[in-house]
Amino acid sequence: MKPYVISNVGMTLDGKLATIANDSRISGEEDLKRVHQIRKEVDGIMVGIGTVLKDDPRLTVHKIPAKKEDNPVRIVVDSKLRVPLNARVLNKDAKTIIATTEEINEEKEEKIKKLTEMGVEVIKVGKGKVDLRKLMEELYKRGIKKILLEGGGTLNWGMFKENLVDEVRVFIAPKIFGGKDAPTYVDGEGFKTVDECVKLELKNFYRMDDGIVLEFKVKK
């Protein structure tokens, strides 16, 4: 069994998450509220370590009225355990789970000890990189039945490649950022053929702020 996963993203019409200088002001006020409403409705919110290092997010519900218990469990996929001990995602606002690999050295062991002392749970799954399929099973066992995936391109690719995403919600802003090195919604090595790719079914769409929201089910 695995959690139901909603991949949500705010991107430009050309699929970028930020400019080449990491300016990611894409969503308007109403769209930010939409995202925080989803956060309030799920059990967990998942990002990759790249997002934590780049944006230092809190990953809590704060753009709409909410109580502390409305905050989902924060899940960070971090194969090399690079999470800074002062990252906001480790604060006391909500429970945090760090997913890392099974390879352990002295330095990693020490960091796991510190994280545990801070009340952070560390799950070790996979060799070389986090085994996302196994991670989903572990999270489900912990009562996390619904996850909001707010990943960057690398984590999004891993989740789509392993067929772990159930639903996609996209805010498309009427902007073009360009830049071959600007971060996109899904990176990774990519599928080689159309037959292999992830196929979606459009379920809903509506205007929001100055853009449009598209909601899809992933065809299984």
Automatic annotation (TrEMBL):
Family: Belongs to the HTP reductase family.
Protein name: 2,5-diamino-6-(ribosylamino)-4(3H)-pyrimidinone 5'-phosphate reductase
GO MF assignments: 5-amino-6-(5-phosphoribosylamino)uracil reductase activity; NADP binding
Gene3D superfamilies xref list: Dihydrofolate Reductase, subunit A
Species of origin: Methanotorris igneus (strain DSM 5666 / JCM 11834 / Kol 5)
Coiled-coil segments: 91-118
Catalytic reactions of this protein: 2,5-diamino-6-(1-D-ribitylamino)pyrimidin-4(3H)-one 5'-phosphate + NADP(+) = 2,5-diamino-6-(1-D-ribosylamino)pyrimidin-4(3H)-one 5'-phosphate + NADPH + H(+); 2,5-diamino-6-(1-D-ribitylamino)pyrimidin-4(3H)-one 5'-phosphate + NAD(+) = 2,5-diamino-6-(1-D-ribosylamino)pyrimidin-4(3H)-one 5'-phosphate + NADH + H(+)
Family matches, as PANTHER family: 2,5-DIAMINO-6-RIBOSYLAMINO-4(3H)-PYRIMIDINONE 5'-PHOSPHATE REDUCTASE, DIHYDROFOLATE REDUCTASE FAMILY PROTEIN (AFU_ORTHOLOGUE AFUA_8G06820)
Superkingdom to which the source organism belongs: Archaea
Pathway involvement of the protein, from the record: Cofactor biosynthesis; riboflavin biosynthesis
